[in-house]
Amino acid sequence: MAYPSRSCDRCSNERRSSFMKWLCTFLKGQKPGEPNRRRPRVTAGEEEDTLWQPPVRPKNDPPRHDNEELDRAIAESLAEDAKPPKERNHKGDSNDEDLARAIQDSLNMNPYTPYNPYAPSQAQAQAQPRGHRVCGRCKHEIGHGHYLSCMGIYWHPQCFRCCSCGHPIRETEFTLLGTDPYHKLCYKELHHPKCDVCLQFIPTNRSGLIEYRAHPFWGQKYCPLHEQDRTPRCCSCEKMEPRNTKYMSLGDGRSLCMECLGSAVMDTGECQPLYHSIRDYYEGMNMKLDQQIPMLLVERQALNEAMEGESKGPHHMPETRGLCLSEEQTVTSILRRPRIGGNRLLDMRTQPQKLTRRCEVTAILVLYGLPRLLTGSILAHELMHGWLRLKGYRNLNAEVEEGICQVMSYLWLESEILPASSRHAPSSSYASSSSSSYPPTSSKKGGISHTEKKLGEFFMHQIANDTSTAYGDGFRTAYAAVNKYGLRQTLNHIRLTGGFPV
């Protein structure tokens, strides 16, 4: 009786194996071109000879012996499952594991995978085993266990850290930049602009956009409201005063940053070497001034009073920093450099001086407390006014006179901060009028510092980008004429016609 039993068990295992293969094929999908198969209705608990019913086929449908065999295998397998646990055959455990694995793989298949540009390509995904995942941080494969995912990117839980501070991200909200996760606050610290004045994040406007102002040269960013809240600016470089930095107060409403204060010219005696070096620069350009013109460093109030008493030259910049006098006046000049006490200047000594007219030019006045290069550029500008008057240039309009004076100021700055190979060299100018042939007038040994050079570039930028008609448009027209015809021919044309050559 044992032999028939073994034969029956083997037949049962073969039938179950066929069923497993069919069920795995069914769950994984139907092959192209394969006809659909109907699964018979089976009721558990009935006798084995009544469980299976042959499927009803159309009259014209040819017999399918392979389908009948599979249907019989399904029916017999279900009948086996309907038996009591003691009568079941347990030799098909490995086949049951295959069935469970096939069902699990089928459930994990997702035909609607979202597009992720950082995920592996389709060819790479096909080459990788099913369930293959790579950590977006350590780039190692993620095996069994917990993992985190977002937008098709995976991480080990211990690898899900902020790329800025390095601490784990435990919040439900975070920012993903490419494949790099960040805490929201860390991302804001890195990418949200801060105001260089109040040192806070620049707020958004009513439209939800970040709106700020930026200096065209220094790139300093600040909130728009600081333009109305009387935040001090440096009177030289025009940078706004940060909250954690105090500028030097000059006592006349002006403030000076520490960088500009480092080279500031504070009294008349200190300015004399710079003044004489610029006169030598003019002489090197074959534009020597035969008369000795007094030069005084004055306070803001004294300069404004002298400007009101001047009958000639009504055209001035909104912030007057220099003046070429042609009338007799009494001007108060700064006699001794003031002492610095905290954030203020103390013990300033002044002296009134009566200016007598001996020629067309009485004196040159310059505002005190400005950096050396800015003071020099003002002197070069005002000295050109004096040269034009002493040489008989009469009744020039503001655009022509201020334009050519700004050109001389620009050329002097260029000679101070640029190397000889890159300086402006006007064609057909005076015999030795090329500024590249004349040494810089810096009184410091070893040239100027990087900070002072950057200031000089800013002053040149101010001249070149001035928006006023007389100083801005006049400079650009004069500079183009000097570049094209040279300084000598441009000045001769101004003398004859009162305008620039075209």
TrEMBL record:
Keyword ATP-binding: no
Chain positions covered by the region annotation Disordered: 27-70, 428-449
Xref: InterPro entries: DA1-like, DA1-like_dom, UIM_dom, Znf_LIM
Molecular functions per Gene Ontology: metal ion binding
CDD domains in the cross-refs: LIM_DA1 (cd09396)
Domain of life: Eukaryota
Basic and acidic residues bias spans: 58-70
SMART domains assigned to the protein according to its UniProt record, in alphabetical order: LIM, UIM
Keyword list, A-Z: LIM domain, Metal-binding, Repeat, Zinc
All residue ranges annotated as the LIM zinc-binding domain in the record: 133-193
Biased amino acid composition, Low complexity: 428-443
SUPFAM superfamilies in alphabetical order: Glucocorticoid receptor-like (DNA-binding domain)
One Pfam family from the record: DA1-like
Name listed for the protein in its UniProt record: LIM zinc-binding domain-containing protein
Organism: Urochloa decumbens
